[in-house]
């Protein structure tokens, strides 16, 4: 069984109130080194069998059509979970 990870982020020009709230809280909690926060969404899609290039392509298409709102969000990454855990980015910067 394989797993695909899809990360979706708000477009840069879209306000991110949750990210701003977190950015405001971090210094109060002793994490002053962070100057900005953007909050996005992460999806994990399981498949029967291995994650192939065809599975990744289908996940990217699903991400664009179903998992994200293309008006306000960008799909920033679609990756094989195992490769992602090993530090190997399979697909990035899809927007």
Q: Mind explaining what this structure looks like?
A:
The protein is an alpha+beta fold. It has a domain at 2-14 and 40-90. It contains three helices and three strands. It has helices at residues 17-28, 53-67, 81-85; strands spanning 2-10, 41-47, 73-80. Strands 2-1-3 form a three-stranded antiparallel β-sheet. The radius of gyration is 15 Å and the shape is flat. The model has no long low-confidence stretch (mean pLDDT 91). It catalyses: N(2)-formyl-N(1)-(5-phospho-beta-D-ribosyl)glycinamide + L-glutamine + ATP + H2O = 2-formamido-N(1)-(5-O-phospho-beta-D-ribosyl)acetamidine + L-glutamate + ADP + phosphate + H(+). Keywords: ATP-binding, Cytoplasm, Ligase, Nucleotide-binding, Purine biosynthesis. It comes from Cellulomonas denverensis. Pathway: Purine metabolism; IMP biosynthesis via de novo pathway; 5-amino-1-(5-phospho-D-ribosyl)imidazole from N(2)-formyl-N(1)-(5-phospho-D-ribosyl)glycinamide: step 1/2. Part of the FGAM synthase complex composed of 1 PurL, 1 PurQ and 2 PurS subunits.
List keywords for this structure.
34% helix; 25% strand; 95 residues; 3 helices; single chain; alpha+beta
Helix amount: 25-40%
Shape: flat
How many strand elements? 3
Secondary-structure element pattern, one letter each: EHEHEH
**What oligomeric state do these chains adopt?**
single chain
Provide a count of the helices: 3
Unreliable stretches (pLDDT < 50, length at least 5) are none
Termini separation comes to 28 Å
C-alpha Rg (nearest Å): 15 Å
**Helices and strands: which structural class?**
alpha+beta
For the biggest sheet, the summary is:
3 strands, antiparallel
Mean pLDDT across residues? 91
Instruction: Kindly report the spatial arrangement of strands forming the biggest sheet.
Output: 2-1-3
Task: Provide the β-strand percentage band.
Answer: 25-35%
């Amino acid at each position: 069984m394989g797993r695909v990870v899809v990360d979706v982020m708000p477009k840069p020009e879209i306000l991110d109130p949750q990210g701003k709230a977190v950015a405001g809280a971090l210094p109060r909690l002793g994490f002053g080194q962070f100057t900005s926060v953007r909050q996005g969404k992460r999806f994990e899609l399981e498949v029967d069998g291995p994650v192939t290039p065809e599975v990744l392509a289908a996940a990217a298409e699903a991400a664009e059509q179903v998992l994200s709102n293309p008006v306000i969000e960008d799909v920033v990454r679609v990756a094989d979970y195992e490769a992602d855990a090993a530090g190997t980015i399979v697909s990035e910067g899809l927007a």
